[in-house]
Design a protein that fits this description.
The chain is mainly alpha-helical. The protein has 4 helices and 2 strands, in the order H-H-E-E-H-H.
């Protein structure tokens, strides 16, 4: 982004031309050069004095709302599916744990082995 004219600076900063002009005349905002064509203002200097504000319009708010609704609905479906899968995994885990516990216990009513040659 190159240097900005007075009008461009006002638009970028979200303020009026008169506000930018007053800041230039008072010395609060400096400029690169001034000619018959107008001021050339460095964007960094402009945003130092007037921090950049996002441009929000009614039309942009309305166009974002349906997308957000679709995204929210999509996320809700994904959460539901993940919760279902989590329940399945927990059931499988419990079944494996039960099987492992059964296999780890000695079988009932079997004599214990003594050694290699029955000692």
């Amino acid at each position: 982004m190159g240097n900005l004219s007075l009008g461009q600076a006002a638009k970028e900063a979200g303020v009026s031309k008169a506000t930018v002009s007053k800041a230039l005349k008072s010395g609060r905002l400096s400029y690169v050069s001034k000619s018959t064509a107008g001021y050339e203002i460095d964007p960094a200097e402009l945003f130092r004095v007037f921090p950049k504000k996002p441009l929000i319009t009614v039309a942009s708010e309305q166009s974002e709302t349906p997308e957000e609704t679709v995204e929210t609905a999509s996320l809700a479906v994904e959460v539901r599916l993940l919760r279902e899968r989590l329940a399945e995994v927990q059931e499988e885990r419990d079944a494996w744990r039960d099987q492992a516990q059964r296999l780890a216990l000695p079988a009932p009513d079997q004599p214990k082995r003594r050694g290699w040659f029955g000692r």
